[in-house]
Design a protein that fits this description.
CATH topology of the largest domain in chain A: Tetracycline Repressor, domain 2
Structural class of chain A: mainly alpha
Oligomer: homodimer
Strand order of the largest sheet of chain A: 1-2-3
CATH architecture of the largest domain in chain A: Orthogonal Bundle
Largest interface: A-B, 111 and 110 residues
CATH class of the largest domain in chain A: Mainly Alpha
Number of strands of chain A: 6
Number of domains of chain A: 3
Mean pLDDT of chain A: 90
């Protein structure tokens, strides 16, 4: 977005013109504009927004900015603002704000709401419960279409949450769903009972968000009801939150596959100490594992002394093996995540990787041989030793890369740990063993 | 899903019972069941489905199964099936089917439809045009709410595409949108003109799907109108297709970051030759780049002959440097993709990585020193050489990993090329230069 005009209005203190501009803008764009505002201007500009728009913009702001506003406004403003927030945004806010703010907000809630808030704050992180909202339309199957539409008007939620209505019993047990469009297309006297779908897809309050996202993808849902252990409807999850979950899970996979422990906030908002903590564990494990390569090399100290040239090819062999293995493991890890590969495909993966590694291995080995023998002018024995090692390293790397993530998955470990860093360390070790094995045959050392 | 019952019914040829079971199932589950059917049973079971359900199930099947059905059914069945498909599914099918099937389908389309199909087939791959559907509700601003609801009933689409209605002029130029819920909440005599939102977010037919997905995420949309260059409404894109785009783009990033060129189909459905082709390019480039490390080692041949022990630590130093660099580059590449980091953050990234690398580098170096000096018993000079190299390699790796993706992005290159494989190769080279630099000072070689 281009905010030149807005910035000029701020600079020239033309606040009533600015207010008019803000009035016509999308809330997401206003939130983006807040990102570039100086912090002392945030509250001033925030107060220019209408009550409803303020709450909507607020829910798009970063935690830092939300906190800044909550701390700066007076108590009355705070209570009004919180009052306007959707229930799920309210919960998100309470999770992030300092204790004194939380206290103020809770003090002003009704007892029913306070109980509900506490219940929601207790759902585990990354569970359905922590994602859901309580703003949904509940109907009874005895209603007719006219009564149902009246109830929708009465509840009057201004979000996408009304596109599906939920039919519940007197004890709030979920009985069925009915789409708003079916209500619109039906005759006013038709009974909900005759229109509702009884075969409803639902999730539990403690289900993991990744599984919920998979359900949305499989059934192309816009929302899903969340029920407790007695199948009583407690909330719904909407697709916009699931889009965020999908991105968040992908980000975590990227991080895990680069040997970084997941963290919650964005990279720039995370402190140096937290970032260091999230990285050092695996680096240490991998560094110590790499000691194995040093031990293998020291075992072949005499061979290396006799033919120093053998050393020159170690980095190239290790890098190529590592890269070949990472390619295979990345493909398989991602396919496991998307559910395209499961344990029963193990044999297919092995044959596929065997085929690929023979083609790739032969091509790389041929080019490598020509280069070492004819361009660099090494002896036939050394050229052959390097070339044969390269071929078998690629073969081993691709098969290990394909198989190990599937085995990790089978053992209920996260297959992402078998990504590039660990595969590289494993392949390096075996590459060196192959190297000296071949060398001892061809060079007689 | 558990398909034991269904499989038993197939085996015992109890087709009328099977039909009843299928009737109560979700289409996505039926499609999953087709996945495990023998191919000779597919057509038989497919014919048990009702006309509407058959079309819905069909759109969930894999390309192979769709092709199998299209080739197996008679012409009349084919035409009926295609007739029932949503327009976007029809286009997807035409893009994948063999020429004789396409010819049959087109021969049966009306001239208007044929023209439309050809127009849609011509939109570039991964553009808005290739994602959109023509099933949407178009209204005129002169209508009132009652007329609008009648039009919705008349068009009677059975998908989520009616939750937003589009207001267009007589020349089909997009003027505004109105949500179905607002129609439901409004009075029958109210004018669309007074209810519609005029400030509409829209995309062009040739916009890239990744940008469209970003717009959905930013504004929390359920659908977006697609307009041509004259701002005439030609179609809409719905969130379910965007969810697929988000997954597809993430998959491509995973692949690119592991030095694999992107490919369209799933891993298991892609042939060994295609998989080999997609991997060999980068492996070759990286293998040849790794030659540089060999050249550096050969320059220090005399040093290596004098102190063979120096060789033992090369793999550990290279691996640790590569891992440290990959961590930084993965974090920054993902942040660039999500728009959380841009070029203006370059300096912040450098200071962050500097901070992290000092903490991580010091910790790794300390542990490494203790191990080499006191557990493995190497001389102080060698222990110090390895430790100092380790520290500076981590420093260099993290800063290169943080900076290079941002520079690649600035140069309009895909930052994903600066992921693990290339960073590792770059870091390896510099790690060796540091190693021998430090060794020549401390060991006097």
């Amino acid at each position: 977005m281009d905010f030149t005009l807005l910035e000029a209005l701020v600079k020239e203190k033309k606040f009533s013109e600015l207010q008019k501009e803000l009035h016509t803008m999308q809330v997401a764009d206003i939130a983006e504009f807040f990102d570039i505002l100086e912090s002392k201007m945030i509250l001033l500009i925030f107060r220019l927004l209408s009550k409803e728009k303020a709450a909507e913009v607020f829910s798009y702001l970063s935690i830092d900015q939300q906190q800044h506003i909550c701390v700066s406004v007076n108590d009355q403003e705070l209570i009004k603002l919180v009052d306007e927030l959707d229930f799920d945004d309210k919960i998100d806010l309470l999770e992030e704000m300092p204790a004194n703010i939380v206290k103020k907000i809770l003090a002003n809630a009704t007892e029913v709401e306070r109980k509900l808030i506490n219940q929601f704050l207790n759902y585990p992180d990354r569970s359905s419960g922590s994602l859901m909202t309580i703003e949904f339309v509940d109907l009874k199957k005895e209603m007719n279409v006219r009564e149902a539409l009246e109830r929708i008007r009465l509840l009057g939620f201004n979000k996408e949450t009304i596109y599906t209505c939920y039919v519940i019993t007197s004890t709030r047990v979920l009985e069925g769903i009915i789409e708003l469009k079916d209500l619109v297309l039906a005759k006013p006297e038709q009974k909900i009972e005759d229109l509702m779908q009884r075969d409803v897809i639902f999730v539990g309050t403690h289900d993991d968000q990744e599984g919920v996202a998979d359900i949305f993808k499989k059934y192309d849902l816009l929302s899903v009801p969340v029920v407790d252990q007695e199948k009583r409807l407690v909330g719904i999850i909407t697709i916009d939150d699931i889009v965020d979950v999908i991105e968040q899970e992908a980000t975590e996979d990227f991080h895990r596959m680069a040997a970084i422990e997941p963290f919650d906030d964005t990279y720039l908002n995370t402190s140096v100490f937290v970032l260091a903590k999230k990285r050092i564990g695996w680096l240490l494990v991998l560094m110590i594992s790499a000691t194995l390569t040093g031990m293998i090399l020291s075992r072949y100290e005499l061979a290396l002394e006799a033919v120093v040239a053998l050393t020159f090819f170690i980095p190239m062999l290790m890098d190529t093996g590592g890269n070949a293995g990472s390619q295979a493991s990345t493909l398989v890890i991602r396919s496991l995540t998307l559910g395209e590969v499961t344990f029963k495909d193990l044999f297919r993966v092995i044959t596929k990787e065997l085929g690929v590694s023979i083609i790739v291995g032969l091509a790389l080995a041929a080019i490598n041989f020509l280069r070492i023998r004819f361009i660099q002018g090494y002896s036939l024995q050394i050229s052959l030793t390097v070339t044969i090692t390269l071929f078998f390293t690629v073969l081993l790397a691709k098969i290990a890369g394909g198989v190990l993530p599937i085995l990790a998955d089978k053992l209920k470990l996260d297959p992402a740990i078998m990504a590039s860093p660990l595969i590289t360390t494993i392949v390096d070790t075996f590459a060196l063993l192959i190297y000296f094995g071949v060398a001892s045959i061809l060079l007689g050392i």
